[in-house]
């Protein structure tokens, strides 16, 4: 079984940037990649300096090549368990050992049960205004159930429709003051023509013409395999150190609102902290070895000294 200084679980920007920092620090690093990135449906990434508009897969491939250039290794597989120590188990039976572990597995988007929504996700049914609002500027935009999201998107378009589930809309005055139209009723589906969103359908038969639908899904961190170790996300420190000694987190698995560039920064910070932790461990081991050697030399000197 191979042993690495650090095993990075997750090959998004958080995991890759961490691996880059660690390999440049001359640590042995293995990156485990499930091959199921959250942003896979998206055609382009935005807000990442010097890489604005790049396809997510291309950004990840560039990062992977940089990590490999410094000696980092990759294995594709899904992690099923981690034992204290650390032995990391993959779904195919592979096991690897690590001195430290960085978890950068991200999250999954749990969507409302609306027919057709999953098929449009990442295209014209989306979550983040800062990631995709510019691409739908000055076009008809719908916002599902979140009034604060609607107020935010008013920055990009004057044609905003807020879909409310009931007549009770506490932010009604704010919405109407910004010229945001409120449509009450339950959304039943999406009208799609030529692979483009054309409208939002309601259970009463109405169809409201829209070219984009923004919503906040339920964010679910991919951290189930950490729970048996006693992992508590509420106890994670500002640099990604968890309450489980030797395990760090970076990116959306620990920070649900982090965008690409923030996730990359968290990976970099966590990597520096991990390297410092390893330096301390290496130093402690060296001191212990030195003391043991001195004691052994002292014993040998007294054993052979004349009485």
From TrEMBL:
Entries under InterPro entries matching the protein: FAD/NAD-bd_sf, FAD/NAD-binding_dom, Ferredoxin-NADP_redctase_2
Keywords, ordered alphabetically: Flavoprotein, Oxidoreductase
Keyword Oxidoreductase: yes
Molecular function, one GO term: thioredoxin-disulfide reductase (NADPH) activity
Pfam families hit by this protein: Pyr_redox_2 (PF07992)
Gene3D superfamilies named among the record's database cross-references: FAD/NAD(P)-binding domain
Keyword Transit peptide: no
Residue stretches making up the FAD/NAD(P)-binding domain: 4-140
Catalytic reactions of this protein: [thioredoxin]-dithiol + NADP(+) = [thioredoxin]-disulfide + NADPH + H(+)
Protein name, entry field: Thioredoxin reductase
